[in-house]
Amino acid sequence: MDMMKTFTKEDTQNGAVANSYDNSSSASQKRAQGICIEVSMKLGCIVIFILATLCYINSINGSFVFDDTEAIVNNEDSKGKTPLTKIFFNDFWGTSLNHKSSHKSYRPLTILSFRLNSMFGGLNPTHFHLTNLLLHSICCTLSLIIFATLLKESRPRLSFVSAVLFSVHPVHTEAVSGIVGRADLLCGIFYFLSIYLYAKHLDAGSLTSFAGSMASCTVAMFCKEQGITVLGVVAVYDVTRSVSGTFNLGNVIKRRDILQRFCLIAVVGVALLYIRLSVMGSTGPPAFQRVDNPASFADSMMTRALSYNYIYSIHALLLVWPQWLCFDWSMGCIPLVKHVMDLRNLGTMFFWIVTVSAAVRALFSPSQRQRKFLTLGLALMAVPFLPATNIFFRVGFVVAERVLFIPVAGYCLVLVYGAEKLWACFPSCRYSKLLILRCCLLFVVLTFGLKSFRRSLDWQDEGQLFLSGLKICPLNAKVHYNIGKNAADRGLRDVAIDRYEKALELNPDYDQAMNNLANLLKDLGRFQAAESWLLKAISVRPDFAAAWMNLGIVQALLRKHKEARMSYLTALSHRRKYPDCYYNLGNLYLELERYREAEEAFRNATLLQPTHVLAWTNLIVMLDNTGQSQRSQSTALEALAILPNEANLHFSLAGILGKQGQFKESERHFLSAIQLNPHSPIYHTNLGVLYHRWKKFQKAEQSYQRALSLDPQWKSAIENLKLLQKAKQK
């Protein structure tokens, strides 16, 4: 029974999309009616938009998690703190593309969207998540239009079902609920737009539509590199649309119009690849570590081949049954497949049998309808996935749910077509099978939708996200590392140490875990153990600048001043712009009473990071303590011009002015410091000292009493209050 009007009608002359399907009574139409709820295009778009929004509505309550911190919170490009042009010369993480440590991911338009979020809403994660949700809903709505456009020649009524499945698929969660997934969302929107405009070009021969399609491809690529693969998808669509009958390369070659379009597509593709490789910088491709993608570092070609193919089958499994979702699949999550007799190869064989069978049917099936569905479905699954295969270049991950954002569209087409074929296998019992198929469809939609909703809850908070990963990949050292890091941030040192040690048990060469564990041990006063772990970290990665700096800090605490200095200088040789390292080097020189070198180090820290409060403070105090009060005062004023709301700077300047007898100005800065930080007992105590010297004994007593109310054991306040009381008795 038809419930509503359908949403496209094929024009017999040019195949243009109109308002409703025709009422053909062909067998394929009847099969389609059996499994699809027929709706108008406008209503269908509204339903898809609402459905996509509901599945991930709880993501707007999330915070910045996992990679969001590096890509947004710690990225000056995303926060708008750098010139706009910088986004075209830095990678996705804010590092110069010419730097040897650059990730080489070039997504300037995605960074621009983060920048706009920051401009209008600051670093409020709700605004970022809301934008992601809106983009996802738009992309899902576009998927309905794309499915209807791609399949209109065979007059299907399955586009709506395909779009519903695309909208609720749980594998989208990482792209929607993780803010950095915006790259995939933006890429998906312009990917679909490129396909739509290319189809319009084939309909009407409009060069404007062709140019729009190529422009959309360009925008998609600058949102995420995967966008360039749309050229392959439209090429496949062109062949399926323009050539009838089973696949024959000769028929394609004979068509001059197809060859002309392919030449133009090739020119655009080569130009985009040239641009992409040009911005790569002088340092070449990114230097990933073994832990990021163990299979690509395997010495044996057989191990690489078996492991790669097994990884492909895992990605396919996530499309079919997205039950096992994890924020990170690196390290030991998927052990290498080293032998032909490994039972996991059975899964790989099954994957390739199904894939090759589908490809053969797509090319040589006598049914044009079957060829169209399978060809377009497989193209949408395989072509966007090509950059993740490790065939053309090494990638920095093992399995990544985000790379499946567009391939899901192809899977949904194939799945819905399979359901239609299943319907056709049972010509009798029309109404009973109609009920069964629609119930199955409803079950899949509800299962996927609920899974998406629940999975997005995991992405609201880093603690939940990392623990969810532990259930899926207990052998992944990175999961344990992230749980430890999150615990350390919350002050749970014992939990953090335990998780870091577990990570190192699973991966003895995990240099970042060594570094973080050493920092915790240093804070606990276990300096020898901390030094040992840091020495291991730099032996694993000799250019690990942070580990070299932390080693210098520990060695300074162990009074190994010469070694500490060399560690700091080594860190700076690996990372020239390292303000924290200059600050710590300055502290070392200060301890050694090498004041000129200390001043130079502190100055370097403030030049590289003008907001480095600790470097400013130590420089001011050092100048004051070495009898350079005028320089100390001018330095404090220089710092306050940059950081007018920094309490510690007001406090330091107040002390200098007080020593010079400028009591009124000193009082003003003490009061400014207290206004900015009213809960510091030392601020109230030193204000009391100022009043004490100024002979304002009542105000002095009040300041001492406030300090003691904040900390009853504050020694200097107790002693000064006693002196004040004795003075008053005299």
UniProtKB/TrEMBL annotation:
Q: Which reaction does it catalyse?
A: a di-trans,poly-cis-dolichyl beta-D-mannosyl phosphate + L-threonyl-[protein] = 3-O-(alpha-D-mannosyl)-L-threonyl-[protein] + a di-trans,poly-cis-dolichyl phosphate + H(+); a di-trans,poly-cis-dolichyl beta-D-mannosyl phosphate + L-seryl-[protein] = 3-O-(alpha-D-mannosyl)-L-seryl-[protein] + a di-trans,poly-cis-dolichyl phosphate + H(+)
Task: Extract one GO molecular function annotation from the record.
Answer: dolichyl-phosphate-mannose-protein mannosyltransferase activity
Query: What EC number(s) does its UniProt record assign?
Result: 2.4.1.109
Transmembrane stretches in the record are: 39-59, 133-151, 258-275, 306-325, 345-364, 373-393, 399-419, 431-450
- The yes or no answer to whether the keyword NADP is present is no
- Superkingdom to which the source organism belongs: Eukaryota
Single biological process term from Gene Ontology = endoplasmic reticulum unfolded protein response
Q: Keyword Lipoprotein: yes or no?
A: no
Query: Looking at the Swiss-Prot or TrEMBL record, what is one Pfam family this protein matches?
Result: TMTC_DUF1736
Query: How does it sit in the bilayer?
Result: Multi-pass membrane protein
The broad enzyme category this protein falls into is transferase
Q: Which PANTHER family is this protein grouped with?
A: PROTEIN O-MANNOSYL-TRANSFERASE TMTC4, PTHR44227
Query: Family per UniProt?
Result: Belongs to the TMTC family.
What does the function comment of this entry state?
Answer: Transfers mannosyl residues to the hydroxyl group of serine or threonine residues.
- State the name under which the record lists this protein: dolichyl-phosphate-mannose--protein mannosyltransferase
Q: Organism source for this protein?
A: Daphnia sinensis
